[in-house]
Design goal:
The complex is a heterodimer of chains A (271) and B (433). Chain A is α/β, with parallel strands linked by helices and 271 residues long. In chain A, 42% of the residues lie in helices and 18% in strands. Chain A has one domain: Alpha/Beta hydrolase fold, catalytic domain (Rossmann fold). In chain A, helix 3 packs across helix 4. The termini of chain A are far apart. In chain B, 71% of the residues lie in helices and 0% in strands. The chains are: A alpha/beta (271), B mainly alpha (433). At the A-B interface, helix 1 of A face helix 3, helix 11, helix 13, helix 14 and helix 17 of B. Chain A: GO terms for molecular function: hydrolase activity.
């Protein structure tokens, strides 16, 4: 009896430990899921996608310009996706660089709805390969012209399967309604992008930049087509900002070198 | 009971009794017991706040508190009020009590005792002003109430200093012409002196001194990633807690970076071969810190294994909930472990033994290192299981560590109980005389 009285308190302590451990044991599987969901890799590259006709060297000047304006020098890796899905690399990511630039270009860089869809699929192949090599799970992206469409298609259709999270997206003169100037006409590209908008991340911050050489567009892309971005991103992503740039270098081809846009990239895409 | 005590035990008990017969020590021990209720309430509030109401808490995450608890922010404000008030008052209280009790040993005049206690509180306040708020027309920010448990050692030190100085003055001026004249004079001089010291202290840029002290204490933690350096961290943590600095050493950016790299390896490669297998997070926290600094959970279990120790058991029952959430301040203050020579050795030895055993098991790849961040308030034995993503071997090692630490504590707790009983008996016989 004395022994029982002596040890019952010890039994209560051990029972309390077990009781308080029950929530933790039940929560254990959720803990791993939560850790994976909230985990962000140290590396968060800025992925740049050029428009049609442009190669993976399209942003060499832009990266050089940005590196002169920032304290941290960002390395540059260029990837070309061949039509047979093979990847050709040039440049390198410096060890310890947490925000390198990665340009993804395509061997078939022709314009047109079918080609843009193909380029989005090739982009996914390159993205998966880069993710496997560099172990990043979040990134920011900038697409010039059709590059913006490729990135939007990727984020709507393929990104969820990669497990990656897009932090920020900047589209520069991206024709969400292709070259259609008539505001009453919806192209198949626009219809597809609107149909897939619910797959866009609620945490994504989007900037849509438009060039204004004339009062109706940047010389190639109609202003209304860029403006259509609001029907895709607005009320879907965390924030959506539209900016119109005019003045020198405001025509479609020169926009990535436009000083206002370089400043916006430095300010909004780089940490 | 005494017949069963080994020679080393008898020696340890004798040293404990010798130590506790010292006037200063006896006063500090009494003062610690006096502020125990405040420390208990403040620690319970701290436990509720950090484990139930903050997003990094164990119950917050496991019981999905946000989905059913209404007015959480308001509740948190109330809990923080209780926590800050109780712990702040405990620091001021210990300074007052130490000074008061020291003066009580040299004079029977209540006014002298109260004046000495008040001077100690005032001195503590003067030393804890936020210099940034020292501007004309702005309310002054007294930080003494925000010291928390870290300030307990400071409270003891100030109490000892003021109490001894006042006591010395009373001895020198033993027969004043009037009972009020001495406390009035000594009080006025004391206030002026503490004010002068406070001003001098502020002029010496105390923020710089505090930063320097913190940097010095954090030094060994910076990049601690080996058995030796972690042992040093464990001993330093234990030593400071034994002296009354009850908050553990803060984590350094290097430690946080290593923890992030470990987690990245697990999540990105699904491999448990971590780049930093021996860090505070992988070893110290899950395997050598159950119940708080010093493997206090082992101490708690040992208390309930020992017989004829009613006081220890009483303190143990009162401290059980905080200790199960790794908040050990009430147990360290109540027993007390603070400044107790007999419990000093196991307090340092138990975590060191657990750390060494766990490091060995990790080196032999018998258990994986803990990579997932642990939630505040997780019951000690479960930290390693959750930290390793559910490895049963980690849970097994944690259980072995608990048994090991209990075995280390057991004889010392028994001897401490005997010493306590003898102190009590001597106090009764002194009272009869």
């Amino acid at each position: 009896m004395r022994s029982f009285n002596h040890y019952w308190s010890l039994g209560i302590i051990l029972a309390l430990i077990c009781l308080l451990s029950v929530p933790g044991l039940c929560w254990h599987s959720q803990q791993i899921r939560a850790a994976r969901a909230t985990y962000r890799s140290a590396m968060a590259p800025v992925i740049l996608v050029p428009g049609s006709s442009a190669t993976q060297n399209r942003f060499n000047q832009l990266v050089k310009e940005l590196n002169t304006q920032t304290k941290t020098q960002h390395s540059l890796l260029r990837v070309e996706v061949k039509t047979n899905n093979q990847l050709v690399y040039s440049g390198a990511i410096r060890r310890g660089d947490r925000q390198p630039f990665i340009v993804i270009g395509f061997q078939n860089r022709a314009d047109g709805l079918t080609n843009i869809r193909k380029q989005a699929a090739w982009f996914t192949i390159a993205f998966r390969a880069l993710q496997k090599t560099y172990h990043f799970n979040h990134f920011s992206a900038m697409g010039h012209s059709n590059g913006g469409l490729i990135l939007t298609l990727f984020m709507e259709n393929a990104m969820a399967k990669t497990g990656a999270h897009a932090d920020r997206l900047m589209t520069i003169a991206s024709p969400f309604n292709l070259e259609e100037a008539n505001p009453k006409v919806d192209t198949p590209m626009f219809t597809q992008l609107v149909a897939g908008r619910q797959h866009l991340s609620k945490d994504l911050v989007v900037y849509s930049l438009a060039g204004s050489q004339s009062y109706t567009g940047d010389g190639i892309v109609p202003f209304d087509s860029v403006d259509r971005g609001k029907y895709i991103f607005q009320k879907q992503v965390k924030s959506f900002t539209q900016i119109t740039v005019s003045g020198a270098n405001a025509n479609h081809a020169n926009l990535p070198e436009n000083q206002q846009i370089v400043r916006l990239i430095r300010q909004d895409l780089l940490d | 009971m005494a017949k069963q005590v080994s020679r080393f035990g008898q020696w340890a008990i004798a040293r404990e009794l010798c130590w506790r017969k010292r006037q200063q020590v006896r006063v500090v021990m009494t003062a610690l017991r006096l502020v125990f209720p405040l420390v208990l309430v403040g620690t319970l509030a701290d436990l509720v706040n950090r484990s139930w109401l903050e997003s990094t808490g164990y119950y917050y995450q496991t019981l999905h508190v946000t989905s059913w608890l209404l007015r959480r922010t308001r509740l948190q404000q109330g809990v923080l009020l209780v926590q800050t008030g109780a712990l702040g008052l405990a620091v001021l209280g210990v300074a007052f009590a130490v000074s008061y009790l020291l003066i009580a040993r040299v004079t029977r005049q209540t006014s002298d005792r109260l004046m000495g206690g008040g001077l100690a509180v005032l001195a503590l306040q003067f030393l804890n002003v936020n210099p940034a708020t020292l501007r004309a027309g702005r309310p002054l920010d007294w930080t003494a109430m925000n010291l928390g448990l870290t300030g307990l050692a400071l409270g003891i030190a100030i109490g000892l200093l003021i109490g001894n100085l006042y006591g010395w003055s009373v001895k020198r001026w033993s027969q004043p012409s009037d009972v009020v004249i001495r406390p009035l004079t000594l009080g006025t001089l004391g206030v002026l002196l503490t004010a002068l010291l406070g001003v001098l202290w502020l002029m010496r840029a105390p923020l710089g001194s505090t930063t320097g002290l913190t940097a010095w204490l954090r030094g060994p933690l910076t990049g601690a990633s080996g058995w030796g350096s972690l042992l040093g961290v464990s001993v330093l943590n234990g030593g400071l807690a034994w002296l009354g600095v009850l908050s553990p050493l803060p984590s350094t950016p290097q430690q946080a970076a290593m923890a992030a790299q470990n987690l990245a390896t697990v999540l990105e490669t699904n491999s448990w071969r971590l780049p930093h297998p021996l860090t505070g997070q992988t070893i110290l926290q899950p395997y050598a810190n159950m119940g708080g600094t010093g493997m206090t959970l082992g101490l708690l279990v040992a208390i309930f294994l020992v017989t004829h120790n009613a006081t220890q058991r009483h303190i143990g029952w009162l401290s059980v909930l905080p200790v199960l959430g790794n908040f050990n301040a009430p147990l360290l203050v109540g027993l007390p472990v603070i400044l107790s020579p007999i419990l000093w050795l196991p307090f340092l030895l138990a975590p060191a033994a657990c750390l060494s055993l766990s490091s060995l098991c990790l080196a032999l790849h018998w258990v994986p290192a803990s990579a997932y961040a642990f939630a505040v308030g997780t019951p000690g034995p479960l930290i390693s299981y959750l930290g390793t993503g559910g490895a049963l071997s980690a849970l097994g090692l944690a259980s072995i560590n608990l048994v090991l630490s209990t075995a280390i504590y057991y004889p010392f707790v028994k001897w401490a109980a005997i010493a306590e009983q003898r102190v009590h008996e001597e106090a009764i016989s002194d009272a009869k005389l």
